[in-house]
Amino acid sequence: MTKCFSLTATRNFCLRSSFSTSGLRSTITDLGDGTIIHCWVPKTRKQTRPDLLLLHGFGANAMWQWGPDIIPRFVHHFNVYVPDLVFFGDSFTTRSDRSESFQAECVYRVMEMNSVTKGVRVVGLSYGGFVAYSLAAQFKEFVERVVICCAGVCLEEKDIADGLFVVKDLDEAADMLLPQTVEKMKDLMRVTFVKPPVKTPNCILVDFIDEMNRENLQEKRELVHALAKDRKLSELPKIPQPTLIIWGEQDKVFPVELGYRLKRHLGDNADLVVLKDTGHAYIVEKTKEFYKHLKSFLLPQIPPIPSSTATTNQQDPHHLHSNGTITITT
């Protein structure tokens, strides 16, 4: 029986309206190599404002992860660009490359076609953090400063076998991140939230899976596998841009150890903020606090966050003697 109403599709429509009323317009860019990228761009780019690129993680399209709590705040300070990464939303490729470096190249080419080629501030959430890091490594003049949000770019393939994650292999990781049943969807919510939404009706979860998780399923599974395959910390470049790392203390998708590992890898060039009492979904659970840290770092002329945070230059919980800044919120 064909569904006559979809709450997910309705919310998607409302999000499109919200992005549009926030001063963004939907664009489709054909990169000419079998790749199509959808991106929200400013209706009017203002030369007096810095450019901000927001890269989403796994899950629904970019709108679901960056709006409506984040976008309306940012558009007053930045020229905001929000692409759908390849195989999410309306972006697609016929090419076989599944690496984050390919995703980064696609994003850069779209920005280039929008006449934005340097001095960009980039925020990458989870999977988008892998892409943001690759952008900063590949296109150094393009990225001015970067925020890596709960993205395990410092993971190694052996970490899975060593038991660092809640999954035992990449197939299980793909099953978790791309749930196809109500039970799997609830499992994902328990893993990503410290306080999962209470009693979400099964019909809503089924509707979301049908609308957001069925399309390009095999390709998305391949993206998961590409993240960890042959990955070694010793081969990860050290990006030169000022970097802010933000992590949820109780993250079960990418444990906070990976945040400290990335801080050690980048040294004084990076600051680490650990948000207490939240996990992988802190953009939902700690929206206001998340935004305050982003604004303080992305607009450094803004006064720093008030003393609701404790800053240390001593040892982190993993016995790192750091010369940089580690902030653990209280």
TrEMBL record:
Residues 308-330 are annotated as: Disordered. Residues 52-290 form the AB hydrolase-1 domain. One of its GO terms (molecular function) is hydrolase activity. It comes from the Eukaryota. SUPFAM superfamilies: alpha/beta-Hydrolases (SSF53474). InterPro entries: AB_hydrolase_1, AB_hydrolase_fold, Meta-cleavage_hydrolase. PANTHER family: ALPHA_BETA-HYDROLASES SUPERFAMILY PROTEIN, SI:DKEY-122A22.2. This is AB hydrolase-1 domain-containing protein. It comes from Tagetes erecta.
